[in-house]
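Final report, closing paragraph on structural work. Over the funding period we assembled a curated collection of sequence-structure pairs, and we close with a single example.
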Amino acid sequence: MRVTVKDIAKYCGVSAGTVDRALNNRPGIKEKTKKRILEAAKELNYRPDFTARSLVKGRSMTLGIVLFDLYNRSIAQLLNAVELKAKEYGYYLYITLTNKNPLSERECIEYLTNHKVDGIILFTVNKGKKFNEYLHSLSIPVVTIFNYVSDDWEHFGIKEREAMRKGTQYVIDKGYSKFVYICPPLRKMGEANIYTQEERLYGFLEALEEKKGGETPLIIKEQEYIKALDEIKLNGSGKTAVICACDYYALEVMNYLKSKHLRIPEDVGLMGFDCIDVLKYIEPKLSTIYYPVEEIGIKAVENLVAKIENGKYISSKKSATLDYRIIEGESI
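Its predicted structure, as stored:
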């Protein structure tokens, strides 16, 4: 038979309200009493009745998150930060993965709404007026991260274009005159929401335009980007830099260059984007741009919970941009 809050209250000789304060870490209870109640709950093998709690609160105490996949380490870091922050507020997390498929994303969103999540954090590949209207039809709070949908939604990210422009300028200032840009998602331009990758491309091109002169950059959009890179002469006249739209690609390129016995940065320079946590194990140290994925995840949860519980977001702006910075490694 399930042990209830009333059972614990009777066992400890206190009111049900006092037990509720102890179990939910609320103020208005002496530490000694709280400790006695928590020990009793453990002794009696108490398990919270989330269904009953949801009926009382009018909420399921769950959040949903929609992501592409977990191959990129930065997304794994984001997810970890989101899950930990959600738990701080007493929420559990439903995780859905779309594999960058717009239809699959819709199915993930339907799954989350059917399971009565209180709000959704969305890293979308969908875009446009109809999708925006669809999100409104859900009638639950939505926060978007990275890829932008519209001003209707609280959004968290960085100034992608500016960050890549400054990163490319940093490379140019090191004396490089030939450039290869690697970003496989660009092959889906016009078909899916790849806002972050489009902005990074524009930032790269703007930096080269300001430079004026030099060779036309080579832009690799192929899924088999290492194979495409293998067809390019990298160590000819002039210093060549390979700039990657994320660290995941940069690490694959680094392995390729090493296999070809090309020295980094003496023969070929290499720049990433994200500053994923595994870079501390890599030699040479990768030059990259720090992307605050964990802070973005935390801000997304804070604002989503504020909207759910108080009816308004913490942020005063619809689109909040966080700080980035260039990480000067050894590969440029």
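The first helix runs from residue 5 to 12. The longest strand covers residues 62-67. We thank the funder for supporting this effort.
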